[in-house]
Amino acid sequence: MPSDAKDWKAEAERLAAQVSALAADLAAATGGTKGKKANPVSPLAPKEGFPALPRIGGVSFAAGAAGVRYSGRTDVMLARLAPGTAIAGAFTRSSTRAACILDCETKLTDRSGRSSGAAIIVNSGNANAFTGAAGQEAVDAVTGSAAAALGLPVSRVFSSSTGVIGEPLRHERITAKLPELIAALDEGAIEAAARAIMTTDTFPKGASAEIAGEGGAIRIAGIAKGSGMIAPDMATMLVYIFTDAAISPELLQTMVARQVDATFNAITVDSDTSTSDALVVAATGASAAAPVEDAQGQVGRAFEAALHSVMLDLAQQVVRDGEGATKFVEIRVTGATDAANAHRIAMAIANSPLVKTAIAGEDANWGRIVMAIGKSGGVAERDRISIRFGDILVAEKGWRSPGYSEEETAAYMKRDTLVISVDLGLGEAARSVWTCDLTHRYIDINADYRS
Amino acid sequence: MPSDAKDWKAEAERLAAQVSALAADLAAATGGTKGKKANPVSPLAPKEGFPALPRIGGVSFAAGAAGVRYSGRTDVMLARLAPGTAIAGAFTRSSTRAACILDCETKLTDRSGRSSGAAIIVNSGNANAFTGAAGQEAVDAVTGSAAAALGLPVSRVFSSSTGVIGEPLRHERITAKLPELIAALDEGAIEAAARAIMTTDTFPKGASAEIAGEGGAIRIAGIAKGSGMIAPDMATMLVYIFTDAAISPELLQTMVARQVDATFNAITVDSDTSTSDALVVAATGASAAAPVEDAQGQVGRAFEAALHSVMLDLAQQVVRDGEGATKFVEIRVTGATDAANAHRIAMAIANSPLVKTAIAGEDANWGRIVMAIGKSGGVAERDRISIRFGDILVAEKGWRSPGYSEEETAAYMKRDTLVISVDLGLGEAARSVWTCDLTHRYIDINADYRS
């Protein structure tokens, strides 16, 4: 036992060093934070913050605090859409999907009320999922009240709910807020709308594009929420995209359906699919440009490309906000026999816990890529596969590349944005998907914390 | 700054308390251990240790240290099988499977050399996977040398390799060890064999069964390695089962193929499938009992049931040694339209990172079970699903059960062995699969350490 000041000082210094070492280990073990309270903005968030989005003629927004789950938190968003607005959408294919999803799917096929306009109402805090018959009653109450207050047929009011599941939705709190929301509707309030739909998101997500139509500009602006396709208590991915293009709902739906596979269906955080994922695209026709009528014409192609870029940007932002993510990763598969095989193999790699933990550990573990290709069920021949990390060829012809440099690859893996390319050497089809790494913070968010 | 002994003592005591607190946090964050060096035995390991296995007439074992990757580590196992031994097997369906797997598959269909006996040779430390043409050359060298030394046709020597991938196998180190291994062959050395094939396993795995045949007892003894279907650098699941039954290779293969779906194909640690999984079953015919010839007869049914029990026991031990596992979980799906749908839904639940992290957090998060059913692609109707944790009914008819008790369920979740039952309410088909939780230690093993 130390007996004088000098000995106690040495003991204290030894312990101080131990404290530093343990604190560093703990930070490493928990992804730099302890518990969820900190909820820091994702390190992969866009550096420039929420983008400046163009106003879309014919769309106005309002956000408010209805107290759906917590009081004083902005948790409800209303978007009003001008008469003539065309609506398209895509929804989760989950067999346990929520009542609002079933309701939206039905309403999307009924285009009779288009001339009167439309509305979208979204709440966070409660997903109204797996709530039996009460689920549809809540949807009817919210969309019915909004329709009455806005003078719309109920078939033109689309709702989404996100948050805890299995709890009855206090729909009367939302309907009580409607007069205040309607009074506050504002064409410039899209950022407030993006913030109102956040649950475990660490940043609001927005993207836009503009093209030259015939006789005027056509603008697209979209917002999204989602921390991947996953979150505690099954919070969901929700996306709302608005454009002033004049376009029929049929053509809009065709374009949305065509673009969704390579955008929102090409991202994954952890392979878990929500009960409530929803994408709604609304075209008001307020642009001075001539209607978009021919998908193969110059404007039609430009519009679909712009729509694709907004969808992809929002989809990638969801991955960048993936729970616990520290790396944003593109998995690019080329040389596949067809697009379905390219997608299947890319997704098997993107969803592999072994691949995702290796990326978290900055380990260029290409053997795990080989494993994931092998388990995917997609068409592949072991001895024709080549694998690149960035531009570095690590494996080819069924074995490690002769020129492989461990040091060069290790340096590449330290980046926060990675491209892993697999060439199957079999055909011409290609597909990219986007994912993130699997870190201690993912466990913290989903296991250590009862949400 | 403290200036005398008393102050420094107080400072040291303050720091010592901080060290304790940080060490506790770190232990909690990393699953109780720091890093892989400790490699503690899984908390789910059988309490009684390695079981006493019966000797199987006609099978002898030897284990040795060939220095495949590390010197001084037992890394090679040889099993010699008597003339007349029938061999059956099942192998990974990975499209990137290793050379030894392709070699075993070919040899299994060639039953011409049965009268001369057979041998199994296994090394750990190097998987000889994704090694191009050199992979088959190494398999030929090892099996060819063993065949020559044992006086067997090369078609009767089956090999497996497990460990790092993409590195050439130093097969000359294994063949140099053959004379010593052959000299050491011993009917009682099965535990040494079980230990020789371990890589990241934290305990050796064995199981046995005995039934009454016509005229004598029939014994089955098996060993396995695997820390789930996953491990760093794609170490693999390997299983070797021996019996003294007299049975044709055709009937043995039929029984093995029939039982593998409900045993080894019904476990998962993290959905990642190895390039090298192999199950080999060898029947020596050394039993005094009459041959097993009728799968539907009394002995045939008893033998197949005993084989099933050994396979299931070994499969469950692999899950119990799953990387980072602290909970052993049965997912039991009933009321399915058919077995394929029951299996698909059970596996979607068992592989869901959200379900597995909730279990790690002792959170009875039944909403995530609903989510996993929904995403599985299996046939399910939301409003007919009921879910139980143990005997506790938590959800029914599309909503939380009216009698649900949070406290009772929370107490159940603290157990280390859990049964989660889902009744789909659609048909009569049922399936169980086994999985473990997803913890910080899984990330430690696979991300924080370069293996």
Largest binding interface between chains: A-B, 87 and 87 residues
**Oligomeric description of these chains:** homodimer
From the helix content, strand content and strand pairing of chain A, which structural class follows? alpha+beta
Biggest sheet details of chain A: 6 strands, mixed
Reading the helices and strands of chain A in chain order gives HEEEHEHEHHHEEEHEHEHHHEEEHEEH
Low-confidence stretches of chain A: 30-38, 228-235
Give the SSE layout.
The structure is a homodimer of 451-residue chains.
Chain A: H1 5-29, E1 59-64, E2 76-81, E3 86-91, H2 99-108, E4 118-126, H3 132-150, E5 157-164, H4 171-176, H5 178-184, H6 190-196, E6 205-213, E7 216-225, E8 238-243, H7 249-260, E9 278-283, H8 298-320, E10 328-336, H9 339-351, H10 353-360, H11 366-375, E11 386-389, E12 392-396, E13 399-400, H12 406-413, E14 417-423, E15 429-436, H13 440-448
Parallel strand pairs in A: 4-5, 8-9, 10-14
Antiparallel strand pairs in A: 1-2, 2-4, 3-9, 6-7, 7-8, 10-15, 11-12, 11-14, 12-13
